[in-house]
Amino acid sequence: MIRLRFLTAVATLTVLAPCAYAQQARPLQVDLDQAVFAFDADHSLVEMYLAFEAATLTFEAVEGGFRSSLPVDLRIQRASSAALAGSPTDAVWSDSLNLSFVIPDTTGLAPGQQFVNQLRATVPPGEYEVVVEVPGDPTTGRTGVSLRREIVVPDYSDSADVEMSDVTLASEIRRAENRDEAFYKNGLVVRPNANQLFGTGLSRIFFYSEAYNLDRLAPLETEYTVFAYVAEANLPQPLADMQRRTPRPLRSPDVVVGSFDLSGLPSGSYFLRIALLNSKNEALVERSRKFYVYNPGVERAPIAGVDEDFENSRYANMPEEEVEKALEHLAIVATESEKRRLRGITDLDERRRFLMDFWSKRDPNLNTPVNEFQEQFYQRLQYANDRYRTTFSEGWETDRGRALIKYGTPVDIELHLYDRDTVPYEIWSYNNIPGEGQAIFVFADRDGYGMFELIHSSVSGERKMGNWLAELRR
Fold it and tell me: Residues 6 or more apart from 367 whose CB is under 8 A from it?
């Protein structure tokens, strides 16, 4: 097993990419991130990463410099959605810290400087909430902070397939021999970046993950390949010069690390995607993480060929009714910025151009005559129409249809259509939704008319219901 060093908490001052609107004298800014790794047959390891923006802390003069003290309470508790109605959500792990940050001078503090902390806890597999609370302090005027993050802790020991841990996004990874160094792990120093913001001041993104059960490939395989790349949010293809294929000898477990230079990327949202490939170039397992880039000096280049090819494209003379229907469809996978842009376009010809631009950006291979991403999208849409159509809605308009189109086919659908004490419901499970990891969706037919409504999901931005089990009771 990969060696682990347990830390109560470690903290260092890190200079991260400044946010566009960062300023002095703001309320306390705390960022939380986490990653889950294999540990033993009964537990998995949860790493929690905390970052406190230095410019939002209150310092007092002490001998040799200035100090800021900060009490922090942390706990991992059973997610209310995973507990029976009325049952307690007692913490399975908790800790109280009294952090102390000391600096030689406060005049040099700037937005983007952060004190970074890391904590580790072992918990049984299941659904949890990570809760971080910083009480307010009336003597300094500091307001309290409370953060909550839902996490799914997998059972890595109960899988016969090749598995990967979560991915830690880091501001630095380097080799280290001193086990007492902060953030030491498996011969490396892995300094996490809890706010996932890179760019100006922090131009390189580092990543750390662990691969398990690779020995299951032997004796037919002697090595595997780590395929890592950066893609724009909601786009499948790697960015130019942002992909790496690294052959590695077959050993289990194995540490997967790497980095990319982000200095040339324009500001925006991106995904780091990692796939482990066998000798046939087949993906054994995939993981991904969303991150953000702030590079105000880098302009976004227009998509080559869109304007030149428009007049000869099928979009140029597309009927208005077909344009509007196609724009309704693509809203399922469009980014928020794309939706805002579309709302500001009223000219029919410009809406046609938007439609062409939208799909052109998502074409994974411009050398083929078809757009594979668009083809897959409409195959899923047709499947949703065939399977989930109701008296009142087309299949793609239903909650199950939208989830299928946006996230793909789940690895498992748990049907509860005839349980005595509950309304009909389904639980969809996913192994790796980009930026989310393992996730579930719960759909329920609460009115008995066959219209399954999404009542809970662990995916960010989707509907959440803390007492969804109680909602299913007849």
Answer: none
Query: Do residue 38 and residue 144 come from a single domain?
Result: yes
For residues 4 and 132, membership in a common domain is answered with yes
What is the spatial distance between Cα 393 and Cα 388, in angstroms, rounded to a whole number?
A: 9
The secondary structure of residue 391, as a DSSP letter, is: S
The helix (run of H) or strand (run of E) holding residue 205 is strand 204-212
Question: What pLDDT is recorded for position 173?
Answer: 97
Q: Per-residue pLDDT tens for 355-381?
A: 999 998 888 877 777 788 898 999 899
Q: Are residues 240 and 379 in the same domain?
A: no
Q: Answer yes or no: are the C-beta atoms of 19 and 197 closer than 8 Å.
A: yes
DSSP E strands: which ranges in 278-352? Answer: 283-294
Same domain, yes or no: 13 and 137: yes
| Residue 334 sits in the same domain as residue 194 | no
Record the pTM: 0.72
Q: What is the DSSP letter of 224?
A: E
Instruction: Write the CA distances from 269 to 24, 296, 337, 354, 435, integer angstroms.
Output: 25, 14, 10, 20, 11
Residue 320 Rama label (left phi>0; alpha psi -120 to 50; beta): alpha
Integer Cα distance of 452 and 109 in angstroms: 53
The helix/strand/coil state of 269 is strand
Same domain (yes/no): 338, 428: no
8 Å CB contact between 100 and 69: yes
Q: Could you read off the pLDDT of 122-163 as tens digits, one per residue? A: 999 988 999 999 998 888 777 888 998 888 899 998 778 899
**Which domain, by its residues, includes 252?**
159-298
222 token code pair: 């002697």
Q: In whole angstroms, what is the distance from residue 473 CA to residue 451 CA?
A: 17
